[in-house]
Amino acid sequence: MLLVKSKELKSSDKNTSFKTWGYVAFVTPFLTSQTAFAETDSLSNPASVVSIFLSLLLVIGVVFMLAYLARRFNVTPGQGGQMKVVASMMAGTKERVMVLQVGDEQHLIGVTAHNINHLAKLETPLAAATPAASGAQFKDKLTQALASKMNPNLTNGKEKQ
């Protein structure tokens, strides 16, 4: 039928060509759906089954990798409110000693994989490290490292004599 309509399209004038193209546009999705039924037989093909299985494994692998990275880098929302971590130090592979500031008081706590222990209340509070100050220190160290790479005679911003 499609062949007959295309011959009719060539021989007809401009007014009927729109009707014929409308017919072709209407019939084309049905023809492609029949080819889709033919493609479902390809699921019995071992190569396509292996391809689908490997694609599924890839997606599951990406999900687990993202979960690992989120856990490793502790992706949590920013700190807000009355409580914040002033200082933290690793005491072992899964143990940590932290100083928390709650309001005006600071507390020393020990954190392990299984529990959290209050160690002491600090009488003299530690100065809270500001992120800008630590960023500035990093910036200075990075600048010095890059300067020493570019000019090996430079040490601590001064040139050797």
Describe the structure.
The protein is α+β, with helices and mostly antiparallel strands and 161 residues long. The protein folds into 3 domains: 2-70, no CATH class; 83-122; 131-161. It has 4 helices and 6 strands. Strands 1-2-3-4 form a 4-stranded antiparallel beta sheet, with no helix packed on it. Strands 5-6 form a two-stranded antiparallel ribbon. The mean pLDDT is 75. InterPro entries: Flagellar_biosynth_FliO (IPR022781), FliO/MopB (IPR052205). Keywords: Bacterial flagellum, Cell membrane, Cell projection, Cilium, Flagellum, Membrane, Transmembrane, Transmembrane helix.
Topology:
Layout: H1 2-11, H2 14-39, H3 46-72, E1 83-90, E2 96-102, E3 105-111, E4 116-122, H4 131-150, E5 154-155, E6 158-159
Antiparallel strand pairs: 1-2, 2-3, 3-4, 5-6
Helix pairs in contact: 1-2
Task: Write a compact overview of the structure shown.
With 161 residues, the chain is α+β, with helices and mostly antiparallel strands. The chain contains four helices and six strands.
